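quick one, 93 residues, struct below
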Amino acid sequence: MGVLGFLWHLLNFIAPALVLAALLTPAAVGWRGLALAGPRAQRCARVWAVLTGLGLAVLLAGLLVHGRDGKMSTYAVLVLVLGAAVAWWRGRR
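---
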């Protein structure tokens, strides 16, 4: 496998965590908290980074447990963990 193939596989491995974090960020900060600049944008970026990190940890744990990626149980745990994180984040406010 060449470098381009490796990068393509890596992108496909982390894509579920990136996309789900991007979709759940508005739920965590609230729609009125969304912004493209300023402190609110930094908060959105911070929430997205934390959710992405949690998602990547879940995907890596699924890879270690199952020995391969792409198992539906890993994706189910990904949704549950990120959903719980967003619920916790919303409950803090």
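The two ends are 48 Å apart (CA to CA).
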